[in-house]
């Protein structure tokens, strides 16, 4: 008797623009970051190609303020089962509106996650099983062993310093209370201690004194919302290198060239 194939998970791809001017777009000739060319094609196309190449991923919904502009991108023409939706104010509110009914899981990533691969998706989804909320992260030693020049935002916990990898698995609408909470603090997403403090003084004290690991801290934060939350450590440092700065893009293009 053969094992059943897993049901492909729907994906939500966040491709909107944050408020204010984006220095990456200066002189680029494009109006939104998702369409910024990297290694000859828009970053959005790289991410969609990785998602579509994974047999574990089903329909893909692309969220952006002006989704029609992204839908017209010629580089996306060959991909099946793409859907486009206009996002609202803020990532959390937009994501909440796009979640399917019920509590079936959904995979979430971003348009600047250019180095995403089917292997990363498989590793993450395997590690994320049996959770309500799962977050992919990379430990600093994993990244710096191969890319010491890469600058990331790090969360310090007992046993390591961690950076997010722009991959999330959410169990449908049961995570809405968490998304509502996140909408009030997402402007501080790059300020590690502010994020930790928002979940309560005990979590902040524990992080400052290194009383627990990041896995234990995320599990505690999830329990505040009645959710089973977990960190999925990623073995590939590339998983946390997203296209935020010109130096990131230079590094991403070198990595893509080496892959080819």
UniProtKB/TrEMBL annotation:
Q: Which residues cross the membrane?
A: 192-212
* Entry keyword annotation includes Transmembrane: yes
What Pfam families does the record point to?
NTP_transf_3
Taking every annotated instance into account, which residue ranges of this chain make up the domain MobA-like NTP transferase?
32-140
**SUPFAM superfamilies noted in UniProt:** Nucleotide-diphospho-sugar transferases (SSF53448)
Q: What is this protein called?
A: 4-diphosphocytidyl-2C-methyl-D-erythritol synthase
- Give yes or no: UniProt keyword Coiled coil: no
**Which GO-annotated molecular functions does the record name?**
nucleotidyltransferase activity
Classification via InterPro entries: MobA-like_NTP_Trfase (IPR025877), Nucleotide-diphossugar_trans (IPR029044)
| Keywords from the named record | Magnesium, Membrane, Transmembrane, Transmembrane helix
* Domain of life of the source: Bacteria
The organism encoding this protein is Sphingopyxis granuli
């Amino acid at each position: 008797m053969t094992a059943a194939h897993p049901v492909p998970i729907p994906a939500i791809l966040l491709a909107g623009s944050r408020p204010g001017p984006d220095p990456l777009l200066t002189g680029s000739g494009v109006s939104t970051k998702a369409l910024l060319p990297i290694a000859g094609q828009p970053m959005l196309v790289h991410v969609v190609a990785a998602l579509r190449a994974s047999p574990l991923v089903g329909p893909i919904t692309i969220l952006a303020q002006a989704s029609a502009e992204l839908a017209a991108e010629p580089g996306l023409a060959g991909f099946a089962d793409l859907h486009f939706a206009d996002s609202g104010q803020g990532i959390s509110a937009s994501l909440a509106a796009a979640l399917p009914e019920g509590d079936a899981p959904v995979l979430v990533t971003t348009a600047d996650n250019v180095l995403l691969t089917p292997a990363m998706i498989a590793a993450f989804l395997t590690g994320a099983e049996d959770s309500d909320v799962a977050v992919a992260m990379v430990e600093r030693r994993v990244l710096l062993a191969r890319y010491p020049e890469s600058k990331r935002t790090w969360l310090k916990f007992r046993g390591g310093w961690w950076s997010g990898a722009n991959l999330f698995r959410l169990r449908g609408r049961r995570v809405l209370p968490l998304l509502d909470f996140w909408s009030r603090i997402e402007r501080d997403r790059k300020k590690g201690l502010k994020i930790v403090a928002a979940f309560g003084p005990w979590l902040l004290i524990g992080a400052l004194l290194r009383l627990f690991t990041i896995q234990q801290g995320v599990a505690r934060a999830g329990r505040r919302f009645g959710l089973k939350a977990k960190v999925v450590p990623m073995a590939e440092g590339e998983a946390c290198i997203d296209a935020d700065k010109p130096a990131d893009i230079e590094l991403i293009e070198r990595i893509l060239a080496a892959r080819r």
